[in-house]
Amino acid sequence: MSEEDIRTHLCRLGLTGMQADIYVTLLGTGPCTTAGLAANIRRHGRGAGNGTSFTEHTLDRQLAHLRKLGLLTLSGSGPDAGEHVPVEPSIALESMAHLRTAEVQRAHLAAQQAYRGYRRSVAPQGMEDLIEVVKGPHVAERIWNFEEAVESEVLRFDTPPYHTHCTANPTEIEKLGSGVQYRVVYSKSAVQNAAYYSVNIQPCIAAGEQARVLPTVPVKLTIYDRRLAIVSMSCVESEVKDYLLMVHPSSLLSALAGLFETSWRTALPMHLNDHVPCGLQPVHRRILELLSTGITDDTIAELLGISRRTLSRHVEAINTRAGSMTRFQMALYAARNGWI
Questions:
Q1: Ranges 95-99, 200-204, 329-333, 336-340, most confident
Q2: Would 118 be classed as within a structural domain?
Q3: 3-state SS record for 243-309
Q4: Is 291 domain-assigned?
């Protein structure tokens, strides 16, 4: 992963552009004084273009904030006293991720409130123009019709149960080939479904789908060209699967699109970049991809069609190549060397 990619991901977690620049610079240079850090940032053309004037006073405030987050510390004594040192980030990043999760929950609440406002402001006789209920055997047919008609973009929260019975999606693959952009946030339960992963998720990602994963998604949702949304009942909400709502252009549709964008910024990518060293075996690439989703080793082994013992041998081989002792160290190595 490039420094620019790391900077982008840190900003997604809540750091400002300057704070991300500081942390990325220290990862590259090692412990550094404030003056030396300022010189390094300027030398690499960082610290500008993020709406903040780059001065040493501003830098001091940003360093104090990073120390408060637990991403940096000051060396304590000796000739190097006063140098800024990057700290192992897992605790700080977990805290920042929780803050982003809280943002998603607030966005979820905002969408619900927008819908309540819509119900209060729209006359009952006009509701059929904005929301349509589709039931029974027509559900799957309507979903395929929407997919066929899409022209530019599909946004989706993907989680069981499925109206299409976990089958392949050749229409999406065809649309991807014609230039339609798909962005999909999968729930962990979707990725853990071995049959669905092999016949639907993996082929779509290979065809160009941009895929990310969250432990859970807030609603079963697909938005087509930002002109139409379909909302399905999840298994938590209802045991009846043949039921969905069609939402036409309205404040509710805008709120659902905003909910998707907030969740997308929080979700973790499910696929690796194109800069993985050629010496990394395809199965090791797949293992790294699946490890990033947070699913269990048992599920990874099932998805790959191998035993737990074989999976352990592959993970050990990746650790050996990375020179790491733990999975966290392996992840850091993979990030710093452009594997993920």
A1: 200-204
A2: yes
A3: EEEEECCCHHHHHHHHHHHHHHHHCEECCCCCCCCCCCCHHHHHHHHHHCCCCCHHHHHHHHCCCHH
A4: yes
pLDDT band at 38 (very low <50, low <70, confident <90, very high): confident
Reduced to 3 states (helix: H, G, I; strand: E, B; else coil), residue 46 is coil
Task: Specify whether 128 is located in the same domain as 256.
Answer: yes
Do 73 and 112 lie in a common domain?
A: no
Q: 72 near 66, Cβ under 8 Å?
A: yes
Domain range for 221: 94-269
Residues 185 and 286 in one domain: no
Alpha carbon 9 to its chain's center: 10
Give the other-Cβ count within 10 Å of 165's Cβ: 10
Q: Which of 94, 75, 8, 64 is nearest to 294 (CA)?
A: 94
> Per-residue confidence at 259, pLDDT binned at 50, 70, 90?
very high
Query: What pLDDT score was predicted for residue 57?
Result: 76
